[in-house]
Specification:
With about 80 residues, this protein is mostly helical. It is built from 4 helices and no strands. The radius of gyration is 13 Å and the shape is globular. The chain has a single domain, classed as Serine Threonine Protein Phosphatase 5, Tetratricopeptide repeat (Alpha Horseshoe).
């Protein structure tokens, strides 16, 4: 499948859609690390660092080998 990059959405709209999708997934399966990492990155990008770090830590607890959560959180 080839990605279609011709459709443009605003940065804020992309974050809103990402937040909604991640919240849905975390509700459906609270054991998945991915939605918590996505929410953590979104929160940190919106200047809510403490909430973002808490969500990224939750992702690491759920899946300790999840590199994206480690990268977003910071410590080795």
């Amino acid at each position: 499948m080839i990605a279609d990059y011709s459709v443009r959405i605003s940065f804020l709209d992309a974050f809103a859609r990402g937040r909604q999708a991640a919240e849905q997934v975390s509700t459906l399966d609270p054991t998945m690390a991915e939605p918590y990492a996505a929410l953590g990155i979104i929160e940190a990008s919106e200047w809510r660092y403490q909430t973002g770090v808490a969500l990224l830590k939750r992702a690491v607890v759920l899946r300790p080998s999840f590199a994206i959560a480690h990268h977003g959180w910071g410590p080795p």
